[in-house]
Write a structure and sequence with these properties.
This protein is of the alpha/beta class. The chain has a single domain, classed as 3-Layer(aba) Sandwich (Rossmann fold), CATH 3.40.50.300. The protein is about 45% helix and about 15% strand. The chain contains 9 helices and 8 strands. The chain has helices at about 15-25, 35-45, 55-65, 95-105, 110-120, 130-135, 150-155, 165-180, 200-210; strands at about 5-10, 30, 70-75, 80-85, 85, 125-130, 140-145, 190-195. Strands 2-6-1-7-8 form a 5-stranded parallel sheet. A hairpin with a 2-residue loop joins strand 4 and strand 5. Helix 2 (about 35-45) packs across helix 3 and helix 2 (about 35-45) packs across helix 5 (about 110-120). The chain is globular and about 50 Å long. Bound molecules: cytidine-5'-diphosphate. Cytidine-5'-diphosphate (CDP) binds near residues 33 and 38. The site of cytidine-5'-diphosphate (CDP) has 18 residues, from helix 1, helix 2 and helix 4.
């Protein structure tokens, strides 16, 4: 099996952009695990499931996952997600999905479904998410974990969402709270505070560690 590099971190810590940059520099694809959780959330919402009220929501979500074919296409230039012949990538970054995804992502059988899809992908690749270096690819060759203060992360995400910075910061903090079961860094991960660095600075730092 080829090389696997994992890049985990909290919400809006820059994982996707950093992973894309590192993967391009290495000439390999990156894999955004969060997109699969987001796609599962989209299917649940499109099926009309109420994420707060539905009795046995997990079984209902699993049923939706069984009824549809979701495929993650791990392109170096940006991951795409397909539901059958329909490309759904653009729909996965709405505030509505941001709000619901952590409810879906705590479900053990949804996590098992995502993990199976990821482990079936041919290495080499850069895997990006929350638990890539811990639960999914503990054998990875190199592991990184990105952090930044909630305010800095909210300022970055404000460029991609319509809400104002305080509202985004509150939503990010809430999501970190809901995600806390799966966001502990691997003991062998290098933790990088991205606050003082720009995107290229983080990419260069990771590449310098990989070159050693
Ligand atoms: O880019 P951002 O960090 O906002 O989101 P993402 O990486 O697309 O992840 C979206 C959500 O999926 C997270 O808030 C988690 O609830 C869940 N997730 C997870 O539980 N495990 C992963 N490996 C990746 C994402």
């Amino acid at each position: 099996r080829g090389v696997i590099v994992t890049i985990d971190g909290v919400a809006a810590s820059g994982k996707s952009s950093v992973s894309g940059g590192v993967a391009s520099a290495l000439g390999i694809p990156y894999v955004s695990s969060g997109l699969l959780y987001r796609a599962a959330t989209l299917l649940a919402l499109e099926a009309g499931l109420d994420l707060h009220q539905t009795a046995d929501l997990e079984a209902a979500v699993l049923q939706e996952l069984a009824r549809h074919t979701l495929v993650l296409e791990p392109l170096a230039a940006g991951n795409r997600v397909w539901e059958g012949q329909r490309e759904i990538t653009e729909r996965l970054h709405s505030t509505r999905i941001d709000k619901g995804v952590s409810i879906i992502a705590v479900m053990p059988r949804v996590r098992a479904w995502v993990d199976d899809q990821l482990r079936a992908l041919p290495a080499p690749f850069v895997a990006e998410g929350r638990d890539m270096g811990t639960a999914v690819f503990p054998e990875a060759s190199a592991k990184f974990y990105l952090t930044a203060s909630p305010r800095i992360r909210a300022e970055r995400r404000a460029k991609e969402r319509p809400e104002d910075i305080p509202a985004i910061e509150a939503a990010l903090t809430r999501r970190d709270e809901l995600d806390r079961a799966q966001i502990a860094p691997a003991p062998d991960a290098l933790v990088i505070d991205t606050g003082p660095l720009d995107l290229q600075g983080v990419i260069d730092l990771i590449l310098s560690k990989l070159a050693l």
